């Protein structure tokens, strides 16, 4: 016989029990100092990533502007060529 209403608890990570440290202890101060260094390093890396993304965004916007200008230039050239072709066809049909 198989049970129909089987409930599985969601996975819960096993955590080390936290120990309260005296805020005046050397161990506490060392942990805080290490954490402060880690936070500063993490924030610096985040700032560098954001700056790299911003630089890439600026490059892409500049390139996009150049490509848009080239599209406009080529569309004008196409229009001019079409007008010339029409003029040539009119001359030879007359």
Automatic annotation (TrEMBL):
Residues 16-35 have a biased composition (Basic and acidic residues). It holds the Pfam family bZIP_2. InterPro entries: bZIP, bZIP_sf, C/EBP. Residues 16-50 are annotated as: Disordered. GO terms for biological process: DNA-templated transcription. GO terms for molecular function: DNA-binding transcription factor activity, RNA polymerase II-specific; RNA polymerase II cis-regulatory region sequence-specific DNA binding. It comes from the Bacteria. Residues 25-88 form the BZIP domain. PANTHER family: BASIC LEUCINE ZIPPER 24 (PTHR23334:SF20), CCAAT/ENHANCER BINDING PROTEIN (PTHR23334). This is BZIP domain-containing protein. It comes from Endozoicomonas numazuensis.
């Amino acid at each position: 016989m198989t049970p129909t209403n089987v409930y599985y608890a969601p996975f819960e990570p096993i955590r080390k029990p936290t120990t309260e440290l005296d805020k005046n202890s050397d161990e506490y101060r060392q942990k805080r100092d290490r954490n402060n260094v880690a936070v500063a390093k993490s924030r610096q890396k985040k700032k560098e990533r954001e700056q790299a993304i911003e630089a890439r965004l600026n490059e892409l916007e500049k390139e996009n502007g150049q490509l848009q200008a080239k599209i406009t230039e080529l569309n004008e050239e196409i229009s001019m060529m079409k007008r010339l072709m029409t003029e040539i066809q009119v001359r030879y049909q007359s």
